[in-house]
Hints:
By secondary structure, the chain is mainly alpha-helical. It has helices at 3-34, 53-64, 66-82, 101-121, 126-154, 163-201, and strands at 38-43, 46-51. A two-stranded antiparallel ribbon has the order 1-2. A hairpin with a 2-residue loop joins strand 1 (38-43) and strand 2 (46-51).
Amino acid sequence: xxxxxxxxxxxxxxxxxxxxxxxCGLFTALIAVGAFIKIVIPVGADTMNFTLQWLFxxxxxxxxxSKRAFRSxxxxxxxxxxxxxxxxRGGGPAYLLRPTFGFxxxxxxxxxxxxxxxxxxxxxxSITWFFTTLAGFVLYYGMGILYFYLIxxxxxxxTPVGIGVIFGVYCLPTMLPDLMLCVLAVMLAGxxxxxxxxxxxx
Length: 202
């Protein structure tokens, strides 16, 4: 390869990395902002928050592909665990001991899974896009329930909570609104896809 070709290739790769960082950073910021657009739902001895984070996680999966979507959510989680108050209740490593932290982990798993399904299926109809979000929805809540159960059973400081109670008390109040966000995400993704694709290929 000639030197000129190497320089062009290097510039192209650098531009691609910059674009990836910018787009992933945008979605990381949107997820963080979504944490503060919330409705507090008192449940049991604790509270749950219905936020717009799930909407932006869905859009990341639908628009960015598996790797970029996962990266966007992972950066958000790491930033919050370092100590920046970007979670619904602040931030810091102690968040790992919160039973509800599993739902945040579920964001990363769901974004990756939705991205994988979109890459594999390349759906052309909205109903197919919606089914990919449903897969992410199941993984999101599944991870949240599993983590909640394990934390409350493994830590002496926590009162053990059964899976039925976790589902009925900590999941059911937000499941219908989150399903509505799945529908909204599919609608928004259809409009945003051309612009995001152009930004990633520019």
